[in-house]
Amino acid sequence: MKKYTFTEKKDTRSGFGAGLAELGDTNENVVALCADLVGSLKMEKFIENHPERFFQIGIAEANMMGIAAGLTIGGKIPFTGTFANFSTGRVYDQIRQSIAYSEKNVKICASHAGLTLGEDGATHQILEDIGLMKMLPNMTVINTCDYNQTKAATIAIAEHVGPVYLRFGRPVVPVFMPANEKFIIGKAIMLTEGTDVTIVATGHLVWEALQASEKLETMGISAEVINIHTIKPLDNEAILKSVAKTGCIVTAEEHNILGGLGESVARILVQNNPAPQEFVAVNDSFGESGTPEQLMEKYGLTDKDIVSAVKKVIARK
C-alpha cells in the first residue's frame, strides 16, 4: 500500500490566499471581495499587489453577493471571501436568485467550514453548507483536503465558467498532496488501491482516511482510499468502479450526515450498484465550542471512527 507522509502542516485557508495572489498576477479579470475578514481569508497578498481590484464590503454579506453578481456582467471574475456560515446560510437567497439562477461566474470562497472552526462554537460553525450548495442548479461544489490542493483548486476555478462554492478550513493540517498536481474539477483522486473496502473522503477527512487505511492494513484489511474533492459534479465512475471491486464503501466528511457527500454516494449506488455503506459524519446535530481535535473526537470524525465504520460495513457484505 502506498504510504503518505508530510513534512509540514498548514491551514487550507492559506492555500486559498496563495492561489488568489497568484491569480491576481496572472489574470487581470480576477477581483476579490471580502466581508471584513481579510486576515481570516488570507487575502493580504492579493490586496497588496492589486489594491484596485479589491473591494472591502464590510459586514454586509448579502450585499457582497449582489455586487459580485453585478461584476460578472462586465467580464470580471469575482472571488468572495468570508466564513462558510456567512457564505451560505446568511446569503442563501442572494446566491440562489442572483448567482445560481442566472449562472453568474462568481466564486464563493468559504473558510472556517465544519466543526474545526473550533472555539467560536455552533453559531459560527456550519455543517449543512455542502447540502445547501449542491442542491442549487448550476453550482459546482468543491471541498479541498490540504494547502496544496486548495491553492490548486483556487487557481482552477478561475478558468471554470459558472458559479463555484469552494470550501476550506481554519486549522493546520498535514500537507500531503503534490504541490504541482493540476486540479481537475469533478475528477476523483485514487490515493491507495485496495480490495476489501472503498473509503471515499473529502476535506479534512481525507488525511484521517489515509491514517485509517494504515491501521486497517495491520489488521489484514485492504482499503482503497479515494479523495473526493469535488462533491458536485461527483465522479460517479470512480466510485462505482471501486465499489464493484471491493463490494462495500465508507464515506467520510466533516459535515452533517444529512445532505453531504455520503447521501450523494448513496444515491448513485442505489441507481447503479447497491452495496453496503457506512457513514462517518456528524449525526444531525449542531456543533459546540472546543479545540478542533476535541470536536473531531467527540463527533466521531477521526481515523478510529473510520476504522470502526469499515469493520461494520465489511461485516455486512
Structural features, described:
This protein has helices spanning 12-26, 38-41, 44-49, 61-73, 84-88, 92-100, 129-134, 147-157, 205-218, 236-246, 261-272, 292-298, 303-315; strands spanning 9-11, 30-34, 54-56, 77-83, 107-111, 140-143, 164-167, 172-174, 189-192, 197-201, 223-227, 230-232, 249-256, 277-282. The chain is α/β, with parallel strands linked by helices and 317 residues long. The strands form three sheets. Strands 3-2-4-5-7-6-12 form a seven-stranded mixed beta sheet, with helices on both faces. The longest helix is centred in the N-terminal third of the chain and has 15 residues, at 12-26. The protein has 13 helices and 14 strands. Helices cover 40% and strands 21% of the residues. The protein has two domains: 10-174, Thiamin diphosphate (ThDP)-binding fold, Pyr/PP domains (Rossmann fold, 3-Layer(aba) Sandwich); 189-315, Rossmann fold.
